[in-house]
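Quick start: read one record
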Amino acid sequence: MSPVLCWGNVTLDGAAAPIGTIVDIFIGADTTPSGSGTVNTTGQYGSIPVWGLDSRYGELLKYSVNGFEATKLGPGNGTFGLQNQVVNLAAVSGPRLRVTTEVPEAVTDSTATLKGNLVDMGNCTEVEVWFEYNSIKSNVLSLSVNGTFSIPIDSLIPETPYSFKAKAECDMVTAEGSTITFTTFNVSPTPTPSPTPSPTPTIVPSKLTSITWSDVDQSGTINKGDLLRFNFSKAMDTGTITAHNVNTRLPTNPEHFYGTIISDNIGWSNSDTRLTVVLAEDETIVGGETVNPTSLVTDKEGNADATPSTGPSIPTPTTPTPTPTPTSTPSLTPTPTPTPTPTPPPFEGNGTVGVSGGTVTTNDSKVSLDFPAGAFTSNTTVTIKSASCRTAPEGYTVQNTCFSITTSPSVANLSASATIQVKYSTADWNAAGKDPDRLKLAYYSGGEWNLLVTTVSTSSGTVSAQTDHLSDWAVLAKEAGSAWQWWYTLLIVMGVLIVIAIVVLFVVIRGRGSAGDFDDDDLYIDDDEEF
């Protein structure tokens, strides 16, 4: 057994790692490093021997820098084996999502309580946690603080080993703990030992467990652009539900329509247990419909969906209770209470973009930034976050689609223009008079708004533009009157020209009259002239 030697360059937060920075190297899923070393020259770590058994040849190596997970940039293949290798590393410091698996409690012949510990929430304010046991996903909990959590499971088979691990997810980042195995108890002692045949594996097919609705435009009703999330109990075969068949594979009762779905309107997440559908043109969903997937919908093992005949229902929008109208007196007319403008839910998203480019999207897919190669000169963390709206420029209004874009390390202008795409709200659309030419993307800089050349897609409900600037942004709607101000200017000019023409005509006529003045003495008749 000989060690594998690793060495190379290393950066921390986009800069060369300082002397004394600790580099740890792990084999496979190990939590204890198989090799450790320090940075002896700024930005470089020396030869670190990685020790392991020959039986572990071929397993992937993992790296950390000062305890923070590091990304392998090459050129080494990153596997444990006989060949020494150069491995360049990059890491970003700061909190990260971490969860551990704990010993289960209350284990019986058919039930158990699985336990875990949410050690670190990273930068998240809310984290979803669950357990995976024998390829089955437990119920999901939503936690807003660190600490231990437990979820009971049932329908277990007596005297059967079960392996499980805790998992956590936030902002499309997933963390998982180590795997722990326990065995369920026997129902009762067997009086006479006798050989038993190998048990037939129990097939636990998937089920559609719940449906959630996100009111993206804050209209209070289900309509185009809103999100429906279908949550399944197991990882699904994503090829059995696509944009082309979602209306037939996830039928509703009564029969309604998700709209003309395209590939951009559908996607899987949560380890392929959650399907998100963006309602599209011609949708007829109203809420309250039940959904029962067809038998053509299967899980990863090929088992047909086993949702009961009356499946979960799409949430029904809550109609606000109207405020009773006060009884008016003959002499007084009560002033109606103004309806408050709905405040959109906050949104946020972040990601690290390198020199080769990348995309950063908010958690509700409202804002996305697509950076080309060369936009940044080093690994940069980009954060998109909803923000308070600034006062709109003259001739425009701002509704509720406002956000900021920041970077770490700070970058004022990009080296290459990025594409920004934003889903406009119903309030934006109504403020623009449902005229796409009156919607504009703009950023605020130097005390003034900068309007960009904006492309509007009414089919996807988005506005997009090219920019090399990152600051405060908003979707602006041009006021109706401002589109016709040039007519007022034309009328004023025409009026001035008419007045000038009248004055000139008057002066000309007056001048001709002065040149031809005469009196009676100038008039005579020649008697000799014949007429």
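The CA atoms of residues 27 and 61 lie 5 Å apart.
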